[in-house]
């Protein structure tokens, strides 16, 4: 296994991880920002007001994007298994 192949596999896997995590985290980040602006404008400092909407949006992102997330990781896994002969040989 040459170092170039190892670097390519590592780069692809890190890209997949960043893509999948950002698909879940970014909607929660935007909702948290909107709730924080709302809390700052109204001077409401309730912790559940900031936590519950982010939790709901994260669960909705998993629910609606779960099929896509599983498909991406399965395609990457199949590509990785199919590239074993070129990596070893």
UniProtKB/TrEMBL annotation:
Function (record text): Role in flagellar biosynthesis.
Protein name: Flagellar biosynthetic protein FliQ
Matches recorded under InterPro entries: Bac_export_3, FliQ
Bilayer-spanning residue ranges: 14-39, 51-70
Homology family: Belongs to the FliQ/MopD/SpaQ family.
Membrane topology note: Multi-pass membrane protein
Keywords tagged on the record: Bacterial flagellum, Cell membrane, Cell projection, Cilium, Flagellum, Membrane, Transmembrane, Transmembrane helix
Organism: Alishewanella maricola
The UniProt record lists the keyword Transmembrane helix: yes
């Amino acid at each position: 296994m040459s170092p170039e192949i190892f670097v390519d596999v590592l780069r692809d896997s890190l890209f997949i991880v960043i893509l999948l995590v950002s698909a879940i985290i970014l909607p929660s980040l935007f909702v948290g920002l909107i709730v924080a602006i709302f809390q700052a404008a109204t001077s409401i400092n309730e912790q559940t007001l900031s936590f519950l909407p982010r939790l709901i949006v994260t669960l909705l992102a998993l629910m609606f994007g779960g099929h896509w997330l599983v498909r991406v990781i399965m395609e990457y896994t199949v590509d990785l298994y199919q590239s074993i002969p070129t990596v070893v040989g």
